Every structure is written in C-alpha cells, then in structure tokens.
C-alpha cells in the first residue's frame, strides 16, 4: 500500500485502514535570535525582548505543534469537522510563528538609517519618498484596533510595494497574497512594559533598529 502525505509518509500496517497512513513531520522549533536580548536597547528593552521571544513566540510554536498533530489525526480519521474546527488555531499560532520569525530578522542593533539601492528606488517610486513611506507605515501600525501588525509588503502581480495592517496574528502572505518585507508588531506585549499605552512612541523608536539589509534581501527574493 502506498502512503503519501506531501512527499513524506509512513504506513503502519497494524492500524485500521482509516489510520494506516500516519504523516511524519518535523516539529516547529523556536528560532534563536541573531542578537542578545539587550542588544536593541534603549529602543526595545531586554525585558521585553526576553518575554516576547522566550514566552510569547515560544507559546505560538508549542500551540502550532499541538494543532498540527491534532490536524494530522483528523486527516487520518477523515474527520472533516475536526479539520475545520482546527483552522483558527492553525491560522493564529501558525501566523504567530511566521510573523515573529520575520520580525526578529527585521530588527538589528546595527539597524536604523535608510535603505539603499533597488529597495530605496522602489520606496520612492511607490510612496514618493522614504519619509512618506515611514509616515504611512507608522500611521497604519498605530491605527490597528486592538492587536495586530503593520506591514510593508510586495505585490508580485503589480510589482509594487504596499502597506497594510493585519489583525491579530493573521499572516500577511497567507491572507493577502503580499510577500512580507517589514513587519511592526503592535501587540501590547511588544511594547507595553516600556512604552505603556503610548503606541506611537514605540513605533517611532522601532525605526532606529530596523534592519534594512534584511528588508532589502526579502525584497530581492520576492521579485524572483
């Protein structure tokens, strides 16, 4: 009997036919930060970074693994109702893992300043100037109602840059089709310990640690 889920699978002959194909998958793990927790100070405190990464992001990773395991069980049983019921957990925790994995690399203790080359050319073409792009992304991020993200993304169909907000942990590409280049996390856990309820101050400060080299690399990859 051939068993295939994606490109990897194994067959357990001692199970009932409905459970005979069990997908083998590699569990998601919390990515290491490319810098120390205190490296982004004074703009983002070490306490925030430690909690944000080792607690909040870790929770998304753990819950994603649990949801995927339950989903694989539902697939094996042919339980469509359970598969549908698990979609919110997969979207929320999967999005949380995707978003934060991008976010950490979007930041750098050597960040700030302005992008160069093709990325800067695209920003000027699509927004008029670098400052206008910053103003628009800041306004969209600050304006998120409740929790969510502000994004600079690339539209492959139009070949242009777009700015958009996503609620909660909705992943940009999975919900809008835009390729994520730069994300600003405006969940309160990203800033409240340092900036309290003054979200605009946090968004203003984050420009000092934006890793434009990483954003430019994502832009070049998105155009291929």
TrEMBL record:
Subcellular location: Mitochondrion matrix
InterPro entries in alphabetical order: Fe/Mn_Superoxide_Dismutase, Mn/Fe_SOD, Mn/Fe_SOD_BS, Mn/Fe_SOD_C, Mn/Fe_SOD_N, Mn/Fe_SOD_N_sf, SOD_C_sf
Subunit structure: Homotetramer.
Superkingdom field: Eukaryota
Primary localisation category: mitochondrion
Keyword Ribosomal protein annotated: no
Protein family: Belongs to the iron/manganese superoxide dismutase family.
EC number: 1.15.1.1
Keywords per UniProt: Manganese, Metal-binding, Mitochondrion, Nitration, Oxidoreductase
Chain ranges of the Manganese/iron superoxide dismutase C-terminal domain: 115-218
Catalytic activity: 2 superoxide + 2 H(+) = H2O2 + O2
Binding site for Mn(2+): 52, 100, 185, 189
GO molecular function, one term: superoxide dismutase activity
Xref: PANTHER family: SUPEROXIDE DISMUTASE 2, SUPEROXIDE DISMUTASE [MN], MITOCHONDRIAL
Cofactor(s) listed in the protein's UniProt record: Mn(2+)
GO cellular component: mitochondrial matrix
Organism annotation: Acipenser ruthenus
Function (record text): Destroys radicals which are normally produced within the cells and which are toxic to biological systems.
This protein's name: Superoxide dismutase
Presence of the UniProt keyword NADP in the record: no
Xref: Pfam families: Sod_Fe_C (PF02777), Sod_Fe_N (PF00081)
Domain Manganese/iron superoxide dismutase N-terminal, first and last residues per copy: 27-108
């Amino acid at each position: 009997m051939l068993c295939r889920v994606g490109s990897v699978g194994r067959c357990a002959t001692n199970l009932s036919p409905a459970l005979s194909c069990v997908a083998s998958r590699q569990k998601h793990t919390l990515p290491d930060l490319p810098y120390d927790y205190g490296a982004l100070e004074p703009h983002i405190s070490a306490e925030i970074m430690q909690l944000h990464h080792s607690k909040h992001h870790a929770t998304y990773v753990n819950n994603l693994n649990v949801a995927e395991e339950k989903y694989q069980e539902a697939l094996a049983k042919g339980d469509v109702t359970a598969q549908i019921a698990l979609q919110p957990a997969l979207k929320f925790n999967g999005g949380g893992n995707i978003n934060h994995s991008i976010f950490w690399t979007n930041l750098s203790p050597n960040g700030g300043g302005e992008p160069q080359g093709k990325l800067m050319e695209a920003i000027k073409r699509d927004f008029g100037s670098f400052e206008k792009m910053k103003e628009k992304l800041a306004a969209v991020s600050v304006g998120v109602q409740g929790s969510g993200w502000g994004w600079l993304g690339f539209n492959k169909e139009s070949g242009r840059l777009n700015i958009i907000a996503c609620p909660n942990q909705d992943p940009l590409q999975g919900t809008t089709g835009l390729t994520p280049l730069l994300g600003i996390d405006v969940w309160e856990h990203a800033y409240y310990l340092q900036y309290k309820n003054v979200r605009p101050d946090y968004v203003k400060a984050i420009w000092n640690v934006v890793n434009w080299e990483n954003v430019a690399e994502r832009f070049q990859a998105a155009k291929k």
